[in-house]
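Students often ask why we bother encoding 3D structure as a string. The short answer is that it lets us treat folding as translation between two languages. Here is a chain of 276 residues written in the first language.
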Amino acid sequence: MSSLTDIDKRYLEKIFGMRSGYVLDYSDATYGEFFSRYKINIHGSRYQSYGTSKAKKMRAFWELEPDSVVAPVLAEMLASYEADCELNGREVEKGILDKTKAIVARLGGKGPNLNDADTEVDFLSQEFTIPNLHRIPVEPQVTTIIEQRLSEARSALKAEAFLSVILLCGSVLEGVLLGAAQSKPEKFNRSSASPKTKDGKVKPLHEWSLAQLIDVACEVSLLKLDVKKFSHGLRDFRNYIHPYEQLVSGFTPDEHTAKVCFQVLKAALASLAGER
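And here it is in the second language, the structure alphabet:
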């Protein structure tokens, strides 16, 4: 069994496009050929415990095989993803790619292990309190909306409305990061991680995705590295606002996931308020 965590798997599923049941652009034949080079019969019954799609076989592979087997497979797939983007003129999702490379390095014994300080357990054990929201760089009218959503998220957590908690936390995170970007446009636009158009110009801030806002906010030192890491997890969970995304992934929000998301949001707010 690999040591991939739930958050690790979500990053990998995102980079490989697994929510639709596929894995990158592999056909059944090329998928089988790829794994056969690692002496793995990926189409065999051993890997069909979750179903017969390529994505479900990959999830079974992660669960059944040790890190020493999983790491080289994932490393080659990430290289294939990069090559495919380059050959087809598609933008590489750099933030997610860097994260997945770090995951693979850890599996291969070349990176931090699960006992490092930025793991989920250690992150959750830290005490984060919601700061004075007026210290966050957003318009006063938006601060009022944020306060309302935080209050609603607390109520939803008590009522065990866990998906509502996740969606509220995701919306607040995106709002405050956009506000931070709009308050420091030159700083954000000059970042090497800022998203560009095909002609090399920085995209208008309102067109930035949440993933891009997270990456740049970290690069300009508004978010700590651990907050960046877990913010991407919250972003992925937030995408389940689309019912079909949730259906394909089989995601069922629970209390733990909701608390992780609330913890991430509190840490991000503290960072943006200069209290962390």
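Translate back mentally: The radius of gyration is 19 Å. Keep this in mind for the problem set.
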